[in-house]
Amino acid sequence: MAQRIDVKDLNIFYGEFKAVADVEMSVEPRSVTAFIGPSGCGKSTFLRTLNRMHEVIPGAHVQGSVAMDGVDLYGSDIDPVAVRRQVGMVFQRPNPFPTMSIAENVLAGIKLNNKRISKSDADDVVEQSLRHANLWNEVKDRLNRPGSGLSGGQQQRLCIARAIAVKPQVLLMDEPCSALDPISTLAIEDLIAELKSDYTIVIVTHNMQQAARVSDRTAFFNLAATGEPGRLVEIDETSTIFSSPRVQATEDYISGRFG
Amino acid sequence: MTSTQSPPTQDGVRPTKDVESPRPGRRPRTRVADKGASRLFRWTATGAGALILVLLVAVAAFLVLRALPALTTPAAELTEEVSWMGEATSLLDFVGPLIFGTILAAALALVIATPIALGIALFTSHYAPRRLASGLGYLVDLLAAIPSVVYGLWGGLVLAPMVKPIWAWLNEYLGFIPFFAGTVSPTARVLMTVGLVLAVMILPIITAVSREVFLQTPRLHEEAALALGATRWEMIRVAVLPFARSGIVSAAMLGLGRALGETMAVLMILSPGFLYSFKLLEAGQQQTIAANIAAQFPEANPLGVSALIATGLALFVITLVVNMAARAIVARRKDFSGAN
């Protein structure tokens, strides 16, 4: 299920403005890769190119290639909709569909993919996905209540359940804990540790302790100055990045000297 | 708890000032901040709100008081005095077909206009390139600026001859549907044509309101759908339409309100009749309340005017009921509206 991602010479633009330049990296399957860096360095922008969500903003486009198991996601014959069905995404703020119940939220992706699904299969998917997202015990008695009635942390786990219900190859998380309290954050981090046995996970985080706790590999992004494009400074084993990074800027950032 | 010197709690924090819990359902009164400009604003806003109520009550009172003579006069005397009541045996007997005609015409307009308006609104909010969208929106708004007399002239002189063959076709091949049954009018001055003109007239308001609502869909929800692998249409279905549901109902009700009260266009196009008839293509079948008032008013005697105002009262009640029904529809799935 999980697949590796190879990024080559990727330049990302908003209209004329080059936001991220010359990214070159590989993301290993069944692992957690964390992106860290100061605000505005392009880590979220880069994350969104991995499922072609970047281009929903008018004028946004990329140059270069992002290959998933050898297939270029930006090939001319690739439908962005198909890419997004294989690469799930969890956003900064929990965004369950407010008009849907908890169960409907979990099934939303499956219904979109136009699969006819029997009632019992649907129930199975709902239970499995919610169990996988460590949410089942909290919501099993109110599956037909609106998802927006849950707490922030529960909503975020509901969004994770919704993302994994369609069995994606890769799971992207854009600062999934930034709107959550420490206990909910811990629940999500535990969940990430469990999910990595099945999925390739890429997570953007502002919290360096979080990157150190959950990830196997860490990539540090930085930008020279405002108006300049962001760049990937280095990517390595998380333990290496946090103990003996090769680049001085990385060390300065993780030791809190800037950013 | 006492309000004097409460002991520090465990973590050394003094509990905050002992506040009387406000009674549920009542807004706590703020005395401190309510001074000067703030107070002026508060009273202006309250006054504006109250003005609506006063106006509504004034209109209702006017209608009831002026309709009273007709309502209290015995039916036999009324039909004798008021020449144009025709074969109607009582006021109720007279106003019934008018209510029917009014609702039928407005419903017809709504059925035609809503899908088109939603299509235009979705196109301008989610499909069209920005420049085209604003141009199109401007054009639709222009439709609202055309006086209804002009719509009436256009409907009677231009549209009616144009649609005549279409109505004939509908009658010939779909005549088994009650709406298209009967004898097709050779002038096409029928309720179907009226419905079409009314639809054009209410198109701008429905389009404008629903476009604004569509544009307010939270980006977060749209992206949630797209990230799940939704196509643009699926994203609209999953994120935009559910979010906009109550707004669409409001937009349609605004349109319906205008269609219910529209006078000139109906008066100038429709060949009237006073029947409970679903035949949309036959002449001399229906009439609307507003158009009937305009048609009879100039030659009505005092009792006749009173009878006309009574029909106006009926129109007022219909509009109120329609709006209340719309609110009930919107409120039914409140939990799922995303407002919490």
From TrEMBL, chain A:
InterPro entries in the cross-refs: AAA+_ATPase (IPR003593), ABC_transporter-like_ATP-bd (IPR003439), ABC_transporter-like_CS (IPR017871), P-loop_NTPase (IPR027417), PstB-like (IPR005670)
Gene Ontology, cellular component aspect: membrane
Domain of life: Bacteria
One Pfam family linked to the record: ABC_tran
Classification via CDD domains: ABC_PstB_phosphate_transporter
GO molecular function terms attached to this record: ATP binding; ATP hydrolysis activity; phosphate transmembrane transporter activity
Domain ABC transporter positions: 5-248
Xref: SUPFAM superfamilies: P-loop containing nucleoside triphosphate hydrolases
Keywords: ATP-binding, Nucleotide-binding, Translocase, Transport
GO biological process per UniProt: phosphate ion transmembrane transport
Protein's UniProt name: Phosphate ABC transporter ATP-binding protein
Protein source organism: Cellulomonas humilata
From TrEMBL, chain B:
Pfam families: BPD_transp_1
Statement: the UniProt record of this protein carries the keyword rRNA-binding: no
GO cellular component: plasma membrane
UniProt KW Cytoplasm keyword: no
Domain of life: Bacteria
A GO MF label: phosphate transmembrane transporter activity
Region (Disordered): 1-32
Function summary: Part of the binding-protein-dependent transport system for phosphate; probably responsible for the translocation of the substrate across the membrane.
UniProt family annotation: Belongs to the binding-protein-dependent transport system permease family. CysTW subfamily.
Name the record gives this protein: Phosphate transport system permease protein
Organism field: Cellulomonas humilata
Gene name linked to the record: pstC
